[in-house]
From TrEMBL:
Organism: Ceratodon purpureus (Fire moss)
UniProt keyword terms in alphabetical order: Repeat
Repeat region (PPR), residues: 41-75, 76-110, 111-145, 148-182, 183-217, 218-252, 253-287, 288-322, 323-357
Name of the protein in its database record: PROP1-like PPR domain-containing protein
Start-end of Basic residues biased regions: 681-693
Residues covered by the PROP1-like PPR domain: 7-139, 187-340
Matching PANTHER family: PENTATRICOPEPTIDE REPEAT-CONTAINING PROTEIN MRL1, CHLOROPLASTIC
Keyword Magnesium included in the entry's annotation: no
Region named Disordered: 667-693
InterPro entries xref list: Chloroplast_PPR (IPR053303), PPR_rpt (IPR002885), PROP1-like_PPR_dom (IPR033443), TPR-like_helical_dom_sf (IPR011990)
Lineage of the organism: Eukaryota, Viridiplantae, Streptophyta, Embryophyta, Bryophyta
Tagged with keyword Repeat: yes
Transmembrane segments: none
Length: 693
């Protein structure tokens, strides 16, 4: 190993480590220096602190500073400047001012560099008022420190980042008033401030000031100017700025072209975007990934998916690999056009390129899977490795789409991205069992039974829902849906509930999508049912729902305001009806409640044999009183259509004397042998008074 003869040699070696942000190498130089019997001076420690600052090692630079004090080496203004700069780079504003406080306590006088570094730290943190406090400190020094273009540029950036655009422009005017010649960075900061308001005229006036001061603009300045034109929705002006840049002798680069392509994308002008792409290719400038992404966004929003896919091929030909954003843009377009097979093909390509799924990719593909399931589409053309490799044709198409949705959901979580409640709701929608609509019941009897929530006749035997088995997802969802919701609750995607206390359980479903709200309710009922089975007391449940206020006309004139439940509220109410739960309140009121008594009644339902209604299926071998009622209704409908008097049926006299309290007819009165001798009781609405006799 080479032996250095002087401290200066070690300091120079440390400077190389600082340039490459090699903190470990710098510490080895320090150890080597001490082993050779040399003592580090202020310059050496300052260089080492600067290396820590560039590497973002804030805690380590403070440790080195304390070691510097232990060795009785006094820090100078450059030492504190390096410390403040390191804190500013790391975004640790309090520690930056802590270093500034140490400097003031040691009597080290701050110079313009220190103040500018502090203002820059405030700018990065968006601490506008703190930046102006530093400006006040500059002016209140015994010998006031005059702000320069760096100070003004940092102040303008601080105001712009803090959303105080008017204040930023006031600072710019103060700079002009104080005759401070700005730098390209200073003028660029002023133009960036104009971008938030889309004030193109003011930005162009800043450009004129720049030319008056003889400052040569750079590519970043023109990029900011084009961005202002985009925010003012003046695409022609944006292209004219590009032409002006060329006339000024400045060759446009990737930064300017990326900004201009972003303008085309934001304004939805895919034709202009394609024209610009041709210009970029002819200029032999290698576009950035963001430029390609902006172009594909413009094409996808213009429903030009095929052109966007060809741009993706061009992107790969340039040697630049697409990123997550690239595939997110294309997959969202596939979802809009319901092109599920193309989406799966793109996803497989992305995975082959090592790109992990993000929330947008996950949401788009699961949304497509839900579309295919709801429309009973054919099976996907691309077979997933999770499916049996031999023959996946025997697997129903719905199950194949569901397998895709579940697999992508799992891969997204494994990649470290947490799906949103909306994505979870779409996945749960894939697990919802199809409902048997009334139209599937071919006979009049089956249609009435379906309407009253009873199982249809034996020739159509769907699984009855009267048992409400938790293991069967209450007959509404695949049981995996409830497990997924519980897992999502553990991941903080969905709300969690405490079943231990007897306090009412509150479900806030105001912002929940439909499927998530339904499964949330079923998950709560599952927890209550399990708690009840363990012998514990059950709590009440309160469900908060979103309502929309609508104005409608009164029949007699004038307007009336009413609240209407949204789709989620209607879906939750429908699930409660399907489970035979009778809540207090209405979905249109924004809150419904399940009392403890109602939940206890629901947890101890009557057996199916005891749940008879006037429309119950007649037992085999008995005459059906229901068939008499059906024939009577049909005769009345026919008479109304024909305009004739309805025929009289003696059975109606007995039907008006039903006992509905226990859910069945008086069988002896209706079918017994001594029916004729039984005393007849007629009510006010009896059918007898319509008899022709």
């Amino acid at each position: 190993m080479r032996i250095y003869s002087t401290l200066q040699h070690y300091t120079m070696l440390l400077g190389v480590c600082s340039h490459f942000k090699d903190v470990d190498g710098g510490l080895r130089v320090l150890a080597l220096l001490e082993s050779r019997g040399f003592k580090a001076d202020c310059m050496f420690y300052t260089t080492l602190i600067s290396a820590c600052a560039k590497a973002g090692k804030v805690d380590l630079l403070f440790q080195i500073f304390h070691e510097m004090e232990l060795h009785d080496v006094e820090a100078n203004v450059r030492t504190f400047g390096a410390m403040i700069d390191g804190c500013a780079r790391a975004g640790q504003l309090p520690k930056a001012f802590g270093a500034y406080g140490i400097m003031m306590s040691k009597g080290v006088k701050a110079d313009r560099v220190i103040f500018n570094t502090l203002v820059n730290a405030c700018s990065r943190a968006g601490a506008v008022q703190r930046a102006f406090d530093v400006l006040s400190d500059m002016k209140s020094e015994a010998t006031p420190v005059k702000p320069d273009h760096v100070t003004y540029g940092a102040l303008i950036s601080a105001c712009a980042r803090g959303g105080e655009v008017d204040r930023a422009l006031e600072v710019y005017q103060s700079m002009r008033k104080d005759n401070v010649k700005g730098s390209p960075a200073c003028f660029t900061a002023a133009v960036h401030a104009c971008s938030q308001k889309g004030d193109l005229d003011y930005a162009l006036s800043v450009y004129e000031d720049l030319k008056k001061d003889g400052v040569k603009p750079d590519e970043v300045f023109f990029s900011a100017l084009i961005d202002v034109a985009g925010h003012s929705k003046d695409i022609d002006k944006a292209f004219s700025i590009l032409d002006n840049m060329k006339k000024s002798g400045i060759k446009p680069g990737a930064v300017v072209y990326s900004s201009l392509m972003g303008v085309c994308s934001n304004l939805g002008d895919w034709e202009k975007a394609l024209e610009l792409y041709k210009v970029i290719r002819s200029s032999r400038v290698r576009p950035t990934v963001s430029t390609f992404n902006a172009l594909m966004t413009a094409l996808c929003e213009g429903t030009q998916l095929d052109k966007a896919l060809s741009i993706l091929k061009d992107l790969k030909k340039t040697g630049t690999m697409p990123n997550q954003i690239s595939y997110s843009i294309l997959l969202q377009a596939c979802e809009k056009e319901a092109n599920a097979d193309m989406a799966l093909d793109l996803f497989m390509n992305a995975r082959a390129e090592g790109i992990k799924p993000n929330v947008i990719i996950c949401d788009s593909i699961i949304g497509l899977c839900l579309q295919q399931i709801q429309t009973s589409a054919a099976a996907p053309q691309i077979s997933l490795t999770m499916l049996p490799p031999a023959d996946s044709s025997n697997i129903p198409a719905k199950d194949q789409w569901l397998t895709w949705a579940l697999a992508i959901y799992r891969q997204t979580i494994e990649a470290g991205a947490l799906p949103t409640i909306e994505t979870l709701s779409r996945l749960l929608g894939c697990l919802r069992k199809p409902e048997i609509s009334a139209s599937t019941a071919t006979s009049f009897e089956d249609r009435v039974l379906t309407f009253f929530g009873q199982p249809p006749s034996p020739h159509q035997t769907p699984a009855p829902v009267a048992t409400f088995d938790v293991l069967d997802g209450f007959g509404i969802y695949d049981p995996r849906a409830l497990s997924l919701f519980e897992e999502a609750s553990a991941l903080k995607i969905a709300p969690t509930f405490n079943f231990v206390t007897l306090q009412p359980i509150h479900i806030s479903a105001e912002s929940m999508p439909v499927f998530a709200a339904e499964v949330c309710l079923l998950t709560v009922l599952k927890g209550i049912k399990q708690r009840h089975a363990a012998g514990a007391r059950v709590p009440a449940v309160t469900i908060k729902l979103h309502v929309d206020r609508k104005e409608t006309y009164r029949p007699k004139g004038g307007m009336i305001s009413m609240t209407v439940a949204d789709k989620t509220g209607q879906a939750v109410a429908a699930v409660l009806r399907r489970l035979h739960l009778k809540p207090q309140g209405y979905a249109s009121a924004g809150e419904i409640r399940l009392t403890v008594i109602e939940i206890q009644k629901w947890l101890q339902p009557k057996p199916l044999s005891a749940m008879k209604t006037p429309f119950a299926v007649p037992e085999k071998g008995h005459n059906s009183q229901y068939s008499v009622l059906a024939k009577t209704i049909a005769d009345q409908q026919r008479a109304i259509r024909m305009g004739t008097l309805p025929p009289h049926h003696e059975a109606l006299d007995m039907l008006t004397d039903m006992d509905m309290r226990h859910g069945h007819f008086h069988h002896d009165d209706f079918m017994g042998s001594d029916t004729a001798t039984a005393p007849k009781r007629y009510t006010k609405g009896s059918r007898r008074r319509f008899s022709s006799s």
